[in-house]
Amino acid sequence: MSEVNGCRLPDDLYYWVDKHVWAKPLEDGTVLVGMTDVAQSLAGKIVVVSLRSLNKTLVRGKSAGTLESGKWVGSIPTPVAGTVIAVNEQLKGKPSIINDDPYGDGWIIRVQPSNWESDQGELVTAEVGVQAYRDKLEADGIHCGG
């Protein structure tokens, strides 16, 4: 786990830095999708999450759902195209899980990707991903936490 400007960034995820979302390929060929620590920090306390329905086909960059916080309402772009095969039902009752654990229990959706090889080429991971995030956070003056 790397930390940049107080923001936690696991080294094993694929990041779409400009959109503050991550993707994690799983052994069964599906991909977990979530928001980064940066995203939840910028949003503030998340109070409502509405996710796309099961079996919905998503285009990369389109909305996987929407969230509302005390200072922001907006869509959550998906970093991977494919079909939604699971949504995080826990978020309906406790959306702040994203604030508490954006890389664990706060995942958003699980997707059966239509072309993971292509999508992963558009994302950054490991040292390259962390450095790309470092550059963006420094350029935008973004800090996480208190």
What report would you give on this structure?
- The structure is a single chain.
- The chain has one domain: RNA polymerase II/Efflux pump adaptor protein, barrel-sandwich hybrid domain (OB fold (Dihydrolipoamide Acetyltransferase, E2P), Beta Barrel), CATH 2.40.50.
- It is 24% helix and 36% strand.
- It contains 5 helices and 12 strands.
- The two termini are 19 Å apart.
Which CATH first-tier class would you pick?
Mainly Beta
* Shape type: globular
Query: Looking at CATH, which topology would you report?
Result: OB fold (Dihydrolipoamide Acetyltransferase, E2P)
Alpha-beta content class = alpha+beta
Give the tally of structural domains: 1
Instruction: Indicate the low-confidence ranges by residue numbers.
Output: none
Q: What CATH architecture label applies?
A: Beta Barrel
Q: What's the number of helices?
A: 5
Radius of gyration: 14 Å
The string of secondary-structure elements, in order, is EEEEEHEEEEEHHEHEH
Largest sheet: 7 strands, antiparallel
Question: Roughly how much helix do the residues carry, as a percent range?
Answer: 10-25%
Quaternary assembly? single chain
First-last Cα distance: 19 Å
Output the strand order for the largest sheet.
7-10-11-5-4-3-12
Q: pLDDT average, as an integer? A: 94
CATH superfamily: RNA polymerase II/Efflux pump adaptor protein, barrel-sandwich hybrid domain
- Report the strand count: 12
